[in-house]
Design brief:
It contains 17 helices and 3 strands. It is mainly α. Helix 2 (22-36) packs across helix 3, helix 3 crosses helix 5 (99-111) and helix 5 (99-111) crosses helix 6.
Length: 386
């Protein structure tokens, strides 16, 4: 039985216009050629998506949209390499098409796919082999494909605020690079959320994306790009500084503490933080949990995490359990609300989850080298939203 085809409607869903351009027929043909050699162990609709995304990536590189260029530029700024996970050697050309790019696009689509599956190892053999199979056709297409003039310098060619709004809406969730991260949330967010929710593989805010994509000064007049950030009241700031003082005074200068059970938490709240000993202040709702982490900041106050002490390899943490960490520490990077973002940042910067393994059991330096990226990619707002 022949596979179903990819049709114009599916291709157009990744584009910011409704009237097909002359180049669209060419690229649909390419998407179908990729589809006919796609053997990824994914549902049929996901195999289609992968082929559409790769074709749109080629179109981006050929036409000068700048989306891929912006992504690898920012990734390089953050991590000193063009892409996560994969060894980038001197043959990698950011202005060309690359096999590593194809691997990443496949992985990004697979990992964000909306069917139940464990975290996708970026070095999954199916990804590596499929990218190798796709690459000759990708190279040929890059050399022969027509430009799409609508996409050329698309984000610089903005004429007014209404035009800017249309471009922002498309960028937020409908490009080959940003759709995977946002498809699960689209039914639950408002138009205003696209300015305050980080999105895409690097969990960038809209103003960060636009700064990478355009130097047109009209964007500076688009106030929605720069939403105001609520500030704590002077009273709250003073309260936070006071708690930080009590916290560090009671921990010999440390700003993080690991507590074994509610009794230790209760003692810390009363005797170190000087909270009142009543149910309004001693967090009785925490009694069912087995352990706690408290972390203090003079500006933000105190954060509380529960049931994750076993996963954090801190010399000051007597509750660390290597076996439990091997099974569960990776969840800190990928499970929403499990670890508060400031604590997770602290753990990543101090290499406190060294025994984390992929769900398939592979322990790899890839996790340690890409921990911040993995957290951004998986958690989005729950890592960068603070």
């Amino acid at each position: 039985m022949n596979k179903k085809r990819i049709y114009l409607k599916e291709w157009m869903q990744l584009h910011p216009y409704v009237i097909p351009q002359p180049s669209d027929a060419y690229f649909i043909n390419v998407a179908n050629q990729l589809y006919h050699i796609c053997t990824l162990p994914l549902p049929e609709e996901m195999r289609k998506k992968v082929c559409l995304y790769i074709t749109a990536y080629i179109e981006d590189q050929v036409s000068g949209l700048g989306l891929w260029q912006s992504f690898i530029k920012e990734h390089t700024r953050l991590y000193n390499t063009a892409l996560p996970f994969y060894n980038i050697n001197n043959s990698y050309d950011p202005k060309d098409v690359n096999e590593e790019d194809i691997r990443f696009i496949i992985w990004n689509a697979w990992e964000k796919a909306m069917f139940e599956h464990p975290y996708t190892n970026p070095n999954n053999n199916s990804i590596i082999e499929q990218a190798r199979t796709f690459f000759p056709l990708v190279v040929q297409t890059y050399e022969e494909a027509p430009e799409n003039p609508i996409l050329a310098n698309f984000f610089n060619n903005v004429h007014n605020i209404k035009d800017a709004e249309k471009k922002v809406h498309w960028l937020f969730a409908h490009t080959y690079l940003t759709e995977p991260s946002m498809q699960i949330y689209l039914d639950h967010i408002s138009p205003e959320d696209q300015y305050t929710i980080p999105f895409g593989p690097l969990a960038l805010f809209m103003h960060e994306w636009i700064a990478l994509l355009s130097d047109n000064p009209i964007w500076k007049t688009y106030d929605k790009l720069y939403p105001s950030i609520p500030e704590a009241s002077p009273e709250m700031k003073e309260k936070n500084r006071s708690m930080f003082h009590h916290f560090t005074e009671g921990t010999n200068g440390k700003n993080i503490v690991y507590l074994n059970g509610y009794a230790e938490l209760h003692r810390f709240l009363i005797h170190v933080l000087k909270w009142q000993d009543d149910e309004n202040h001693t967090l009785p709702q925490m009694k069912p949990f087995r352990n706690f982490i408290l972390m203090s900041n003079p500006e933000k106050g105190i954060l509380l995490a529960k049931n994750i002490c076993e996963y954090i390899s801190d010399k000051d943490n007597p509750l660390y359990n290597k076996s439990e960490a091997q099974k569960n520490a990776f969840r800190l990077l990928t499970e929403e609300r499990l670890c508060p973002p400031d604590l997770l940042t602290y753990c990543i910067r101090h290499n406190l989850i060294p025994d984390a393994t992929f769900p398939d059991g592979e322990k790899s330096n890839v996790i340690q080298e890409n921990a911040d990226f993995i957290a951004r990619h998986a958690l989005l707002y729950f890592y960068r939203g603070d």
